[in-house]
């Protein structure tokens, strides 16, 4: 998404709940959302559904997005998750390049997958678990995590990388 197209003032007004700013934000973001959905989803129908769902989620949650810098990453992850959800729903294998074990995870029932992810978090050593929870559950930035830990940015990033690798290993065995 082009951050140039969305001004900081427009984003902040939408984040604070201005209905006109929210409408302009949705209108500005829609072409990029649609383009990304078409590249990510398995069918054009799924891409249209993912686009509409992403716009709806943006409308409902624009106030929770911390900054304009995080906006495009957040929005594209919403579209990607929606495309995966639609692929699982229709029984199609997602269009992402996954190993066999990781692809099998995507085909599991959501309730089972949630329990497995919770167990993977619990299996992490505490110093990795804390970082993973701060980033992936509390959605803290790397700088916020580093400050909370009293560590450097590089240390926080390294711990997060290791935590995710351990979780992936736990979930795919």
UniProtKB/TrEMBL annotation:
Highest taxon in the source lineage: Bacteria
Annotated ranges, domain RNA polymerase sigma factor 70 region 4 type: 116-166
InterPro entries for the chain:
RNA_pol_sigma-70-like (IPR039425), RNA_pol_sigma-70_dom (IPR014284), RNA_pol_sigma70_r2 (IPR007627), RNA_pol_sigma70_r4_t2 (IPR013249), RNA_pol_sigma_r2 (IPR013325), RNA_pol_sigma_r3/r4-like (IPR013324), WH-like_DNA-bd_sf (IPR036388)
Q: Which CDD domains match?
A: Sigma70_r4 (cd06171)
- Which keywords does UniProt give here? Sigma factor, Transcription, Transcription regulation
The residues covered by the RNA polymerase sigma-70 region domain are: 26-90
SUPFAM superfamilies, per the entry: Sigma2 domain of RNA polymerase sigma factors, Sigma3 and sigma4 domains of RNA polymerase sigma factors
Q: Read off the Gene3D superfamilies from this record.
A: 1.10.1740.10, Winged helix-like DNA-binding domain superfamily/Winged helix DNA-binding domain (1.10.10.10)
Give the family from UniProt.
Belongs to the sigma-70 factor family. ECF subfamily.
Protein's UniProt name: RNA polymerase sigma factor (Sigma-70 family)
């Amino acid at each position: 998404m082009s951050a140039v197209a969305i001004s900081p003032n427009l984003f902040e007004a939408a984040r604070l709940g201005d209905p006109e700013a929210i409408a302009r934000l949705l209108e500005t973001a829609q072409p990029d959302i649609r383009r990304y959905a078409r590249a990510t989803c398995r069918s054009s129908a799924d891409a249209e559904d993912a686009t509409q769902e992403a716009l709806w989620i943006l409308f409902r949650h624009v106030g929770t997005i911390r900054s304009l810098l995080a906006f495009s990453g957040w929005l594209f992850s919403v579209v990607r998750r929606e495309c995966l959800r639609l692929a699982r729903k229709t029984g199609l294998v997602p269009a992402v390049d996954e190993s066999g074990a990781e692809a099998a995870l995507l085909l599991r029932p959501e309730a089972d997958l949630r329990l497995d992810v919770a167990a993977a978090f619990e299996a992490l050593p505490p110093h990795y678990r804390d970082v993973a929870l701060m980033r992936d559950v509390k959605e803290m930035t790397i700088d916020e995590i580093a400050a909370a830990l009293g560590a450097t940015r590089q240390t926080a990033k390294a711990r997060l990388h290791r935590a995710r690798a351990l979780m992936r290993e736990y979930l795919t065995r």
